[in-house]
Amino acid sequence: MDTSAEADEHVEDNRRHWDERVPIHVAGSFYNLDGFRAGEEDLDRFQLDEMGDVSGLDLVHLQCHIGLDTLSWARRGARVTGLDFSAPAIEAATELAEQVGLDDRARFVAADVLDAAQTLGTHRFDVVYTGTGALMWLPDITRWAATVAALLRPGGRLYLAEFHPLTGVLDDDHGATAAGDYFARGARTYTSPGTYAGWNAETVHNTTTEWHHTLGDVLSAVAGAGLRIEFVHEHATIPFQRYGALVADGGRFRYPDHAAALPLMYSLAATAPA
To answer: Residue 205: which residues within 8 A CB-CB, separation 6 or more?
Structure first.
């Protein structure tokens, strides 16, 4: 387990990493900002079904990056707040909100997710939302869950859609055999240039640290924060080709028909006491 000082150093490395990659993500084709400006969105169908009508709800998106998912919920009628530790990401999200005419119902705040309750003051929300690729950047999942609970109004709801933690330990070619220890917690530090949105991009801040949280860790943290778990659903599709063997399926990827399928994503909803 990291000490607090070690975790802080890792988080700062991660912040520099993400700050540097924001302009690459904004300018490249991976996030398709031109398509978004034209009205397209890329939320999973299951997220739309499970979230239901968000019209008139106050929603905070933790770890929002450049704000596409945040603004997608705003387009569907929510009043949204996006929060991310990268100031350049927040600047890009704010600019995008203005470009698509949603700046009257969207605001973006630069802050560490674990400090969100203090940063946002007394404001409380109907929905706390967090999307794919977020939880692995958090050194303390218990503190995260307590933050979520502090942000919710009585009866408010956490909705989480995330990569299944099993995907982090399977082999890259087929996603069929274990290539790591599912139960190994603690920091995992990597050095890799470029970005998933442009592997050939020239970058300087290439060291990042992730923290592996099992599905049980997440569920226990949410329940331990006093939230009542409504459901946990595991899903057979993922937004990108996580393993070489996956095949395209309507803008998502899944295991081929002849292969034994494993969960690629999961979603979770939990409610605060009324």
So the answer is: 13, 16, 17, 19, 20
Alpha-carbon span 157 to 73, nearest angstrom: 15
Give the tens place of pLDDT for each residue, 36-83: 999 999 899 999 999 999 999 999 999 999 999 999 999 999 999 999
The confidence score (pLDDT) of residue 186 equals 87
Q: How far is CA 15 from the centre of its chain?
A: 15
Question: How many residues can be counted in the chain?
Answer: 274
Tokens of 86: 């990268």
For the chain, which domains are there? Answer: 4-271 (3.40.50.150)
Can you give the three-state secondary structure of 69-85, one letter per residue?
A: HHHHHHHCCCEEEEEEC
Nearest-angstrom CA–CA distance, 208 and 223? 29
Summarize the confidence of residues 93-113 as an average pLDDT.
Answer: 97
Q: Which residues contact 127 (CB under 8 A, 6 or more apart)?
A: 51, 54, 57, 58, 59, 60, 78, 156, 157, 158, 159
Transcribe 166-209 into DSSP letters: GGGSB-TTTS-SB-S-TT--SEEEEE--SBTTBTT---S--EEE
- What's the confidence (pLDDT) of residue 1? 53
Residue 253 has a pLDDT of 97
CB 120 within 8 A of CB 81: yes
What is the pLDDT at residue 25? 97
Would you say 13 and 207 are in contact if contact means Cβ atoms under 8 Å apart? yes
For residues 161-180, average pLDDT: 95
H or E stretch including 215?
helix 215-224
